[in-house]
Amino acid sequence: MIFLKLGGSLITDKARPETSRPEVLARIGAEIAAARQADLGLRLLVGHGSGSFGHPAASRYGTYRGASTPDDWLGFAVVWQVANQLHRLVVDSLRQAGLPAMSFPPSASAVTEDGALSVMSMEPLVRALEAGLLPVVAGDVAFDRRRGSTIISTERVFSYLAPFLRPTRLLLAGIEPGVLADYPAGKEILPWVGLSHLTAGKITGAATTDVTGGMAEKVRHALSLLEVLPDLEIRIFSGAAPGAIRRALAGEAIGTLVRAE
User: Fold this and answer.
1) Strands (E), the chain
2) Is 98 helix (H, G, I), strand (E, B) or coil?
3) What is the pLDDT of residues 170-227, one digit of tens each?
């Protein structure tokens, strides 16, 4: 079982609001299709970030912090709408590649408690995997029992699902070739990262608006997953190079390895 996350920086132009990269989406679909054809037993869950669709709107309306007024809830609906626009584009591109992709938006079944994902419907997704379908999740809005509303990243969704689905590999595909030290100023690609890199401040956030915390938050979530699944192989790599996602799905060791120390 493999979890594959398509970063918002990979599938959208994060410097331009609500701008997808259709040629990248088409190539990714073809690479996933090729990987599945080469390994008929491949079980895969795809997730994707919100990039220039959800993040600017979520930041504008403060959806992550909560909602209580009519204006807050209008913002919640706006963020859902723009995030869903990208989600539809991703699922459609996978279907156009001949993949049996099916949408499982977290906002339809997830509930959080002060930002932490408490419950999310599992059975439909599990049945989709058993039927050989390709479930697709995404960063999304969610109803929160304390705040009213929040945003849940793809990483948080993966963290919730991992103990049930028990993946052997987690692949995080962005546009950088791996985790860069002192991002975005630094150029050094770290061969591996662990808690010491976070505490030393070598990994920071995102160069553009990212309400879910950027690279540092991705690494934190990855490390928390290793506490639950210590044998999980986690790699952060660039999906921008043609063939990289196909090679990663085939088991090639590329990018930066996240490991417990």
Assistant:
1) 2-6, 44-48, 101-103, 111-113, 116-119, 134-138, 140-144, 148-152, 169-174, 179-180, 189-190, 192-193, 233-238, 256-258
2) coil
3) 999 999 888 887 655 667 788 898 887 776 565 655 444 444 456 777 788 889 899 9
Query: Which of 221, 177, 191, 186 shows the shortest CA–CA distance to 204?
Result: 186
Q: What is the DSSP string of 141-188?
A: EEEETTTEEEEE-HHHHHHHHHHHH--SEEEEEESSSSEETTTTT--P
**Looking at the 3D structure of the chain, how many domains does it have?**
1
| Structural domain range at position 136 | 2-258
* Helix, strand, or coil (residue 84): helix
- Token couple for 206: 């995102």
CATH number for the domain harbouring residue 100: 3.40.1160.10
Mean pLDDT, the chain, rounded, equals 90
pTM of the model: 0.90
Residues making up the chain, counted from first to last: 261
Please say whether the beta carbons of 9 and 175 come within 8 A: yes
Helix, strand or coil for residue 112? strand
Using omega within 30 degrees of 0 as the cis cutoff, is the peptide bond preceding 105 cis? no
For residues 117 and 175, the answer to whether their CB atoms sit within 8 Å is no
Q: List, for residues 112-164, the tens digit of each pLDDT value.
A: 999 999 999 999 999 999 999 999 999 999 999 999 999 999 999 999 999 99
Cα(144)–Cα(157) distance, rounded to whole angstroms? 15
